[in-house]
């Protein structure tokens, strides 16, 4: 995966084109973050369709490095509330590790993301917030 490939991935994510996002993944990927695990296109679409009803989420890439087996990204994730997302709603949807956000509120978080690659496709994802 090159920087240009990742920029296309981020552009698809920022545009909410979940099918284009999932096309970057290997068959049977594993995305696990903050208590959520996604292994299929349908799970990815369902998770982000739900989340993005409440927030506008964008990735800004600051640093990128890659090899045959790994792509590492450092960037800022910007979350803007477009509808109130309450603790009750998060908990009811298995998202206990996520933070509530009110409409109009903005949260920016530095994120470090590791993408494990197989044949140029994302096989698994791990991330950490600062």
TrEMBL record:
Gene3D superfamilies recorded: 3.10.450.50
SnoaL-like domain ranges (all copies): 7-123
One Pfam family in the UniProt entry: SnoaL_2
Protein name per UniProt: Nuclear transport factor 2 family protein
Organism: Croceibacterium selenioxidans
Lineage start: Bacteria, Pseudomonadati, Pseudomonadota, Alphaproteobacteria, Sphingomonadales
């Amino acid at each position: 995966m090159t920087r240009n490939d990742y920029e296309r991935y981020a552009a698809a994510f920022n545009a909410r084109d979940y099918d284009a996002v999932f096309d970057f993944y290997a068959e049977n990927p594993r995305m696990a973050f903050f208590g959520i695990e996604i292994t299929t296109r349908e799970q990815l679409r369902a998770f982000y369709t739900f989340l993005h009803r409440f927030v506008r989420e964008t990735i800004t890439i600051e640093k990128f490095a890659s090899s045959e087996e790994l792509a590492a990204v450092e960037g800022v994730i910007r979350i803007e509330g477009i509808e109130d997302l309450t603790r009750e709603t998060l908990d009811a949807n298995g998202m206990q590790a996520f933070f509530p956000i009110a409409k109009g509120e903005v949260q920016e978080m530095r994120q470090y993301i590791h993408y494990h690659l197989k044949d140029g496709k994302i096989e698994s994802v791990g991330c950490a917030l600062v």
